[in-house]
Automatic annotation (TrEMBL):
InterPro entries assigned to the protein according to its UniProt record, in alphabetical order: DIOX_N, IPNS-like_FE2OG_OXY, IPNS-like_sf, Iron_ascorbate_oxido_reductase, Oxoglu/Fe-dep_dioxygenase_dom
Tagged with keyword Oxidoreductase: yes
Protein name, entry field: Fe2OG dioxygenase domain-containing protein
Residue ranges, annotated region (Disordered): 79-99
Domain of life: Eukaryota
Residue ranges of domain Fe2OG dioxygenase in the record: 180-286
Annotated organism of origin: Ceriporiopsis subvermispora (strain B)
Length: 344
Protein backbone atom coordinates (compact mmCIF):
# COMPACT_ATOMS: atom_id res chain seq x y z
CA UNK A 1 0.00 0.00 0.00
CA UNK A 2 1.56 3.32 -1.04
CA UNK A 3 -0.03 5.00 2.02
CA UNK A 4 2.21 2.91 4.23
CA UNK A 5 5.50 4.41 3.03
CA UNK A 6 7.68 5.33 6.00
CA UNK A 7 9.55 8.51 5.19
CA UNK A 8 12.82 9.57 6.82
CA UNK A 9 12.06 12.09 9.59
CA UNK A 10 11.96 15.82 8.98
CA UNK A 11 15.52 17.01 9.90
CA UNK A 12 15.60 18.01 13.56
CA UNK A 13 18.02 20.89 13.16
CA UNK A 14 15.80 22.83 10.74
CA UNK A 15 13.91 25.76 12.24
CA UNK A 16 10.19 25.54 11.62
CA UNK A 17 7.33 27.99 11.86
CA UNK A 18 5.54 28.22 15.22
CA UNK A 19 1.99 27.58 14.00
CA UNK A 20 -0.72 27.35 16.66
CA UNK A 21 -2.29 23.90 16.97
CA UNK A 22 -6.08 24.22 16.93
CA UNK A 23 -8.17 21.34 18.23
CA UNK A 24 -11.08 20.73 15.88
CA UNK A 25 -12.91 18.57 18.42
CA UNK A 26 -13.01 21.56 20.81
CA UNK A 27 -14.03 23.95 18.03
CA UNK A 28 -16.95 21.79 17.00
CA UNK A 29 -18.03 21.59 20.67
CA UNK A 30 -18.18 25.38 20.64
CA UNK A 31 -15.30 25.83 23.11
CA UNK A 32 -14.90 29.60 23.51
CA UNK A 33 -11.17 29.46 24.29
CA UNK A 34 -10.45 27.40 21.17
CA UNK A 35 -12.55 29.73 18.99
CA UNK A 36 -10.48 32.63 20.31
CA UNK A 37 -7.24 30.78 19.50
CA UNK A 38 -8.46 30.13 15.96
CA UNK A 39 -9.27 33.82 15.55
CA UNK A 40 -5.77 34.70 16.78
CA UNK A 41 -4.20 32.26 14.29
CA UNK A 42 -6.37 33.46 11.41
CA UNK A 43 -5.75 37.16 12.01
CA UNK A 44 -2.09 37.20 13.11
CA UNK A 45 -0.47 34.61 10.83
CA UNK A 46 -3.23 33.15 8.68
CA UNK A 47 -1.82 29.59 9.08
CA UNK A 48 -2.43 26.97 11.77
CA UNK A 49 -2.32 23.22 12.37
CA UNK A 50 -5.64 21.48 12.87
CA UNK A 51 -5.71 18.30 14.94
CA UNK A 52 -8.60 15.92 15.71
CA UNK A 53 -10.26 16.91 12.43
CA UNK A 54 -11.75 13.46 12.02
CA UNK A 55 -10.57 13.00 8.40
CA UNK A 56 -7.42 10.98 9.18
CA UNK A 57 -8.63 7.77 7.48
CA UNK A 58 -10.06 9.63 4.51
CA UNK A 59 -6.77 11.48 4.07
CA UNK A 60 -4.81 8.21 4.08
CA UNK A 61 -7.20 6.73 1.51
CA UNK A 62 -6.83 9.83 -0.67
CA UNK A 63 -3.03 9.54 -0.66
CA UNK A 64 -3.47 6.01 -2.03
CA UNK A 65 -5.94 7.17 -4.68
CA UNK A 66 -3.71 10.10 -5.64
CA UNK A 67 -0.69 7.83 -5.94
CA UNK A 68 -2.65 5.38 -8.12
CA UNK A 69 -3.64 8.23 -10.46
CA UNK A 70 -0.09 9.59 -10.69
CA UNK A 71 1.22 6.08 -11.53
CA UNK A 72 -0.94 5.91 -14.67
CA UNK A 73 0.89 6.15 -18.01
CA UNK A 74 1.46 9.78 -19.01
CA UNK A 75 -0.76 9.48 -22.15
CA UNK A 76 -3.65 8.31 -20.03
CA UNK A 77 -3.31 11.21 -17.60
CA UNK A 78 -2.86 13.63 -20.49
CA UNK A 79 -6.25 12.61 -21.92
CA UNK A 80 -7.74 14.48 -18.99
CA UNK A 81 -5.53 17.58 -19.23
CA UNK A 82 -7.03 20.65 -17.58
CA UNK A 83 -8.21 23.03 -20.32
CA UNK A 84 -6.54 26.35 -20.99
CA UNK A 85 -9.72 28.41 -20.63
CA UNK A 86 -9.49 28.83 -16.85
CA UNK A 87 -11.43 25.71 -15.97
CA UNK A 88 -10.32 23.97 -12.79
CA UNK A 89 -11.19 20.38 -13.56
CA UNK A 90 -8.65 17.79 -14.64
CA UNK A 91 -4.99 16.83 -14.72
CA UNK A 92 -2.07 19.21 -15.18
CA UNK A 93 1.10 17.71 -16.57
CA UNK A 94 4.57 18.91 -15.55
CA UNK A 95 5.48 21.97 -17.64
CA UNK A 96 1.90 22.91 -18.61
CA UNK A 97 2.01 26.03 -16.42
CA UNK A 98 4.43 28.90 -16.07
CA UNK A 99 5.62 29.92 -12.61
CA UNK A 100 6.94 33.42 -13.31
CA UNK A 101 6.93 36.35 -15.74
CA UNK A 102 9.90 34.87 -17.60
CA UNK A 103 7.83 31.89 -18.70
CA UNK A 104 9.70 29.30 -16.60
CA UNK A 105 7.77 26.02 -16.72
CA UNK A 106 6.56 24.29 -13.58
CA UNK A 107 7.80 20.78 -12.72
CA UNK A 108 4.99 19.24 -10.67
CA UNK A 109 1.86 17.46 -11.79
CA UNK A 110 -1.55 17.60 -10.17
CA UNK A 111 -5.14 16.55 -10.54
CA UNK A 112 -8.07 18.76 -9.58
CA UNK A 113 -11.32 16.94 -8.93
CA UNK A 114 -14.05 19.53 -8.57
CA UNK A 115 -16.49 19.43 -5.67
CA UNK A 116 -19.35 19.95 -8.15
CA UNK A 117 -18.33 16.81 -10.08
CA UNK A 118 -17.86 14.86 -6.85
CA UNK A 119 -21.32 15.68 -5.51
CA UNK A 120 -23.03 15.20 -8.89
CA UNK A 121 -21.18 11.99 -9.81
CA UNK A 122 -21.88 10.00 -12.02
CA UNK A 123 -23.30 13.12 -13.69
CA UNK A 124 -20.64 15.46 -15.04
CA UNK A 125 -20.60 19.19 -14.21
CA UNK A 126 -17.10 20.38 -15.18
CA UNK A 127 -15.26 17.40 -16.61
CA UNK A 128 -14.40 13.72 -16.45
CA UNK A 129 -11.39 12.08 -14.84
CA UNK A 130 -9.06 9.08 -15.13
CA UNK A 131 -10.62 5.74 -14.21
CA UNK A 132 -9.28 5.50 -10.61
CA UNK A 133 -11.40 8.58 -9.80
CA UNK A 134 -14.55 6.70 -10.83
CA UNK A 135 -13.47 3.54 -9.06
CA UNK A 136 -12.73 5.30 -5.74
CA UNK A 137 -15.43 7.96 -5.82
CA UNK A 138 -17.77 6.27 -3.32
CA UNK A 139 -15.10 4.73 -1.11
CA UNK A 140 -12.61 7.59 -0.81
CA UNK A 141 -13.08 10.79 -2.82
CA UNK A 142 -16.64 11.77 -1.87
CA UNK A 143 -16.11 10.84 1.83
CA UNK A 144 -12.97 13.01 1.95
CA UNK A 145 -14.67 15.95 0.22
CA UNK A 146 -17.72 15.76 2.47
CA UNK A 147 -15.61 15.75 5.64
CA UNK A 148 -13.39 18.57 4.35
CA UNK A 149 -16.51 20.64 3.60
CA UNK A 150 -17.84 20.01 7.10
CA UNK A 151 -14.53 21.07 8.68
CA UNK A 152 -14.34 24.19 6.55
CA UNK A 153 -17.92 25.22 7.31
CA UNK A 154 -17.23 24.86 11.04
CA UNK A 155 -14.17 27.09 10.64
CA UNK A 156 -16.13 29.61 8.53
CA UNK A 157 -18.81 29.77 11.23
CA UNK A 158 -16.25 30.58 13.92
CA UNK A 159 -14.67 33.28 11.72
CA UNK A 160 -18.18 34.59 11.00
CA UNK A 161 -18.96 34.96 14.70
CA UNK A 162 -15.59 36.48 15.58
CA UNK A 163 -15.85 39.05 12.79
CA UNK A 164 -19.30 40.08 14.08
CA UNK A 165 -21.16 39.06 10.90
CA UNK A 166 -24.85 38.19 11.10
CA UNK A 167 -25.24 34.46 11.82
CA UNK A 168 -24.52 32.20 8.85
CA UNK A 169 -23.30 34.95 6.48
CA UNK A 170 -20.11 33.16 5.36
CA UNK A 171 -21.83 29.75 5.26
CA UNK A 172 -24.51 31.20 2.96
CA UNK A 173 -21.81 32.27 0.51
CA UNK A 174 -20.28 28.75 0.56
CA UNK A 175 -23.25 26.37 0.27
CA UNK A 176 -21.97 22.96 -0.88
CA UNK A 177 -25.00 22.35 -3.08
CA UNK A 178 -24.32 25.48 -5.15
CA UNK A 179 -21.75 25.50 -7.95
CA UNK A 180 -18.37 26.92 -7.07
CA UNK A 181 -14.69 26.32 -7.82
CA UNK A 182 -13.90 24.10 -4.81
CA UNK A 183 -11.49 21.30 -5.66
CA UNK A 184 -9.83 18.27 -4.16
CA UNK A 185 -6.27 18.63 -5.47
CA UNK A 186 -3.52 16.01 -5.37
CA UNK A 187 -0.05 17.31 -6.21
CA UNK A 188 2.94 15.14 -7.05
CA UNK A 189 6.56 15.91 -7.88
CA UNK A 190 9.32 13.46 -8.66
CA UNK A 191 12.71 13.87 -6.95
CA UNK A 192 14.42 13.76 -10.37
CA UNK A 193 12.51 16.92 -11.41
CA UNK A 194 13.81 18.78 -8.36
CA UNK A 195 17.56 18.18 -8.57
CA UNK A 196 18.28 21.50 -10.22
CA UNK A 197 16.37 23.46 -7.59
CA UNK A 198 18.52 22.64 -4.54
CA UNK A 199 16.97 24.88 -1.87
CA UNK A 200 15.13 27.22 -4.18
CA UNK A 201 11.36 27.13 -4.62
CA UNK A 202 9.61 25.18 -7.36
CA UNK A 203 6.29 26.69 -6.24
CA UNK A 204 6.98 30.42 -6.02
CA UNK A 205 5.80 32.66 -3.16
CA UNK A 206 2.05 33.17 -3.32
CA UNK A 207 -1.04 33.50 -1.19
CA UNK A 208 -4.00 31.24 -1.94
CA UNK A 209 -6.79 33.01 -3.80
CA UNK A 210 -9.81 31.19 -2.39
CA UNK A 211 -11.40 31.29 1.07
CA UNK A 212 -9.81 28.45 3.05
CA UNK A 213 -7.13 25.84 2.35
CA UNK A 214 -7.13 22.43 4.10
CA UNK A 215 -3.74 20.89 3.31
CA UNK A 216 -2.14 17.53 4.16
CA UNK A 217 1.62 17.07 3.85
CA UNK A 218 3.71 14.00 4.64
CA UNK A 219 7.16 15.41 3.97
CA UNK A 220 8.63 18.89 4.25
CA UNK A 221 9.02 21.57 1.59
CA UNK A 222 6.28 24.06 2.41
CA UNK A 223 7.72 27.29 3.80
CA UNK A 224 6.21 30.53 5.07
CA UNK A 225 7.48 33.95 6.04
CA UNK A 226 6.42 35.12 9.49
CA UNK A 227 4.81 38.58 9.42
CA UNK A 228 7.48 41.23 8.95
CA UNK A 229 10.30 38.68 8.50
CA UNK A 230 12.41 38.18 5.38
CA UNK A 231 13.54 34.61 6.07
CA UNK A 232 11.59 31.47 5.17
CA UNK A 233 10.64 28.86 7.76
CA UNK A 234 9.53 25.30 7.05
CA UNK A 235 6.06 24.22 8.07
CA UNK A 236 6.97 20.86 9.57
CA UNK A 237 4.45 18.15 8.70
CA UNK A 238 2.96 16.59 11.86
CA UNK A 239 1.23 13.21 11.42
CA UNK A 240 -2.56 13.51 11.61
CA UNK A 241 -2.43 17.32 11.64
CA UNK A 242 -3.81 19.31 8.73
CA UNK A 243 -2.24 22.63 7.77
CA UNK A 244 -4.95 25.26 7.31
CA UNK A 245 -4.68 28.74 5.90
CA UNK A 246 -6.74 31.76 4.97
CA UNK A 247 -7.02 32.72 1.29
CA UNK A 248 -7.32 36.17 -0.33
CA UNK A 249 -11.11 35.98 -0.67
CA UNK A 250 -11.60 36.07 3.11
CA UNK A 251 -9.15 38.96 3.36
CA UNK A 252 -11.31 40.92 0.91
CA UNK A 253 -14.55 39.94 2.62
CA UNK A 254 -13.23 41.05 6.04
CA UNK A 255 -11.39 44.15 4.71
CA UNK A 256 -8.10 42.82 6.01
CA UNK A 257 -9.13 41.52 9.45
CA UNK A 258 -8.05 38.05 8.33
CA UNK A 259 -4.58 37.38 6.92
CA UNK A 260 -3.60 35.34 3.84
CA UNK A 261 0.07 34.61 4.37
CA UNK A 262 2.69 34.20 1.66
CA UNK A 263 4.08 30.67 1.25
CA UNK A 264 6.22 28.71 -1.22
CA UNK A 265 7.44 25.14 -1.75
CA UNK A 266 11.09 24.02 -1.96
CA UNK A 267 12.39 20.46 -2.50
CA UNK A 268 11.97 18.22 0.57
CA UNK A 269 14.77 18.71 3.12
CA UNK A 270 17.48 16.20 4.06
CA UNK A 271 16.91 12.52 3.33
CA UNK A 272 13.27 13.27 2.46
CA UNK A 273 14.47 14.61 -0.91
CA UNK A 274 14.77 11.05 -2.25
CA UNK A 275 11.00 10.67 -2.19
CA UNK A 276 8.18 11.92 -4.37
CA UNK A 277 6.56 14.89 -2.66
CA UNK A 278 2.81 14.58 -2.58
CA UNK A 279 0.23 16.94 -1.11
CA UNK A 280 -3.51 16.64 -0.74
CA UNK A 281 -5.57 19.82 -0.56
CA UNK A 282 -9.20 20.81 -0.30
CA UNK A 283 -9.60 24.39 -1.52
CA UNK A 284 -12.82 26.11 -0.37
CA UNK A 285 -14.06 28.93 -2.58
CA UNK A 286 -17.26 31.00 -2.60
CA UNK A 287 -20.24 30.22 -4.82
CA UNK A 288 -19.58 31.23 -8.43
CA UNK A 289 -21.80 34.31 -8.54
CA UNK A 290 -20.61 35.87 -5.26
CA UNK A 291 -19.15 39.32 -5.90
CA UNK A 292 -15.91 39.84 -4.03
CA UNK A 293 -16.18 42.79 -1.67
CA UNK A 294 -16.14 43.51 2.08
CA UNK A 295 -19.12 42.21 4.06
CA UNK A 296 -20.04 45.51 5.66
CA UNK A 297 -23.03 44.02 7.51
CA UNK A 298 -20.47 43.56 10.26
CA UNK A 299 -19.74 46.81 12.13
CA UNK A 300 -16.17 45.62 12.66
CA UNK A 301 -15.62 45.05 8.94
CA UNK A 302 -17.38 48.33 8.08
CA UNK A 303 -15.01 50.09 10.49
CA UNK A 304 -12.00 48.40 8.86
CA UNK A 305 -13.17 49.70 5.46
CA UNK A 306 -13.54 53.29 6.69
CA UNK A 307 -10.24 53.17 8.52
CA UNK A 308 -8.35 52.58 5.27
CA UNK A 309 -10.34 54.39 2.58
CA UNK A 310 -7.40 54.19 0.15
CA UNK A 311 -7.56 50.37 0.08
CA UNK A 312 -9.58 49.17 -2.87
CA UNK A 313 -11.18 46.09 -1.34
CA UNK A 314 -14.09 46.05 -3.77
CA UNK A 315 -12.85 43.77 -6.55
CA UNK A 316 -16.02 44.04 -8.65
CA UNK A 317 -15.61 40.48 -9.95
CA UNK A 318 -17.40 37.25 -9.23
CA UNK A 319 -15.65 34.47 -7.34
CA UNK A 320 -15.72 32.36 -10.50
CA UNK A 321 -13.94 35.01 -12.62
CA UNK A 322 -11.47 35.68 -9.83
CA UNK A 323 -10.37 32.04 -9.78
CA UNK A 324 -10.53 31.28 -13.48
CA UNK A 325 -8.50 34.36 -14.46
CA UNK A 326 -5.66 33.13 -12.31
CA UNK A 327 -5.85 29.54 -13.49
CA UNK A 328 -5.84 30.73 -17.11
CA UNK A 329 -2.97 33.17 -16.64
CA UNK A 330 -0.70 30.35 -15.45
CA UNK A 331 -1.11 28.17 -18.54
CA UNK A 332 2.05 28.06 -20.62
CA UNK A 333 0.12 28.26 -23.91
CA UNK A 334 -1.60 31.43 -22.73
CA UNK A 335 1.76 32.86 -21.74
CA UNK A 336 3.05 32.15 -25.25
CA UNK A 337 -0.01 33.78 -26.82
CA UNK A 338 0.55 36.87 -24.63
CA UNK A 339 4.25 37.03 -25.60
CA UNK A 340 3.38 36.60 -29.30
CA UNK A 341 0.92 39.53 -29.15
CA UNK A 342 3.38 41.63 -27.15
CA UNK A 343 5.93 41.19 -29.97
CA UNK A 344 3.55 42.13 -32.82
O1 LIG B 1 2.28 21.40 -1.62
C1 LIG B 1 2.14 22.14 -0.65
O2 LIG B 1 2.53 21.83 0.48
C2 LIG B 1 1.46 23.49 -0.80
C3 LIG B 1 0.92 23.75 -2.18
C4 LIG B 1 0.34 25.11 -2.32
O3 LIG B 1 0.74 26.06 -1.70
C5 LIG B 1 -0.81 25.33 -3.25
O4 LIG B 1 -1.16 24.41 -4.01
O5 LIG B 1 -1.39 26.44 -3.21
FE1 LIG C 1 -0.72 27.68 -1.76
Amino acid sequence: MPGLITYPPFPEDLPSAPLLVIDYALLSDGDEGEKERLWKAATELGFWYLKNHGCENEVNDMFDVGTEIMRLPQEEKSNFEQGTDGSMAGYKSPGANTIDDKGTRDVHEYINITKDDILAWPDVVHGSYPEPVNVHMDSAIRPFAQKAIEVNITILNVLNEKSALPDGTLAKLHRPEMHNQDVVKFINVKPSSLHAFEDSPYVLPHSDYGSLTFLHNRIGGLQIQMPGAENWLYVKPIPGHAICNIGDVLVIMTAGLLRSNIHRVVPPPGEQNKYERQSLVYFTRPEDDVILRPLVDSPVIAAAVSKNPEKDWDKGVTAQDWVSRRTKARKAVNYEVRMYHALQ
